[in-house]
Amino acid sequence: MALSREQLAQRVAQELKDGYYVNLGIGIPTLVANYIPEGMEVMLQSENGLLGMGPFPTEDEVDPDLINAGKQTVTMATGAALFDSAESFAMIRGGHVDLTVLGAFEVDTQGNIASYMIPGKLIKGMGGAMDLVAGADNIIVTMTHASKQGESKLLTQCSLPLTGKGCIKKVLTDLAFIEIKDGKFHLLERAPGVSVEEIIKLTAGELVVPEHVPEMSFQRG
Predict the structure, then answer these.
(1) What is stated as this protein's family in its record (predicted)?
(2) If 168 and its partner were Cys, which of 59, 111, 130, 132 is the partner (CB 3.0–4.6 Å)?
């Protein structure tokens, strides 16, 4: 069974490490803030000038002036700091973010990512994605494995305009967790109830499949 948005966020949260500075992109990545393992200290950074985001607020906690880069209301963790976007991008461009989690339209076997526009559709702009893919060594993309039309988003070569080249190392989809290396996709884990055959069928780029592919675990902590 394909993973839900919440399950995708839970699995990404398992890649966090104590003391990490992490930037969460718009969409599914923002949900990761709700699943940080107990006892782990992680500082979430937003390119609009906030370091130390907490989980999404309850109705009683909502402060309309406190938002993330996607204009969603957020909370502040103990020790959080506010600053202007120039300082925020200096942190990103200077390589001071340990992990970046982004959404995407397409990823290919060369680690290229297309995430900001589909020709003929409304373009909101690239936002901070171009800086994030250039300034971070550790990037995880989370997205659906295929489009609503059933077309693979994991390609030999991206067909859409690129956000960054050769920068993506891991991809978590609703079907699988995949590593990109040596110009190929390498299957690491599969979603519970999803067969290897289903993943192969919906992966357009070359996929290396080990003899045993474990199912994902969603235990927290």
Answers:
(1) Belongs to the 3-oxoacid CoA-transferase subunit B family.
(2) 111
Annotated catalytic residue, options 47, 61, 106, 151: 47
Active site residue 87: no
The closest of 72, 61, 199, 46 to 131, measured between CA atoms, is 46
Q: Is the pLDDT of residue 1 over 80?
A: no
